[in-house]
Specification:
Bactericidal permeability-increasing protein, domain 1, elongated
Length: 183
């Protein structure tokens, strides 16, 4: 074997070894849809007021499904919309959100929630787009400061490791998976 070929093979093996070792040492930690829903259920109502002309409120916490749609958290909620002091109009909302990890807070948050459909017998078809925008703003505001899961300092060994070694996070059906790695 030519020294040059051997050198190239050796370099390739040396470059590949840490990558395969890192993947070999990866560990997955998960938390369930029920754990996330329990955290959301503790949240207080949320309300946005647009100068007295429009008020959008979420009186009870939304319900989540993980992995529906694939790779995202599904959101189902009932939102009340009030126009110019009129009685609130209940609107059924279906939406979705991603997930992100905030290293400073050592917590997971739903990210970029979007109201994908809004339905109410009292809502005119031409007002649906504006209602979706207002409700999306409400959901963004609602989830911005409410972690759905916090890695505790007094948690189990996996949570303690995750506080320092989190590499990635993804949503699967019924759970969130955090991938830990020493590298």
């Amino acid at each position: 074997m030519n020294i040059r070929v051997a050198s190239v093979l050796f370099s390739a093996l040396m470059a590949w070894a840490p990558l395969s070792l890192a993947a070999f040492l990866d560990k997955e930690v998960s938390f369930s849809e029920a754990q996330i829903q329990a955290a959301i259920d503790k949240s207080k109502p949320q309300q946005l007021n647009y100068g007295g002309l429009l008020e959008v409120s979420l009186a009870s916490p939304p319900k989540l499904t993980l992995g529906n749609p694939e790779g995202r958290a599904g959101i189902v909620a009932r939102v009340d919309i009030s126009l110019l002091g009129n009685p609130p109009m209940p609107v059924d909302v279906v939406g979705s959100a991603g997930i992100r990890y905030d290293d400073h807070a050592k917590a997971f948050f739903l990210e970029k929630p979007v109201a994908e459909s809004v339905r109410s017998p009292a809502l005119r078809k031409d007002a649906e787009a504006n209602a979706r925008r207002a409700i999306t703003a409400l959901l963004v505001n609602y989830f911005r400061t409410k972690p759905v899961y916090v890695l505790r300092e007094d948690g189990n060994a996996q949570e303690l490791a995750a506080r320092w070694l989190l590499r990635s996070v993804r949503i699967e059906a019924g759970r969130v998976i955090a991938v830990l790695s020493p590298f």
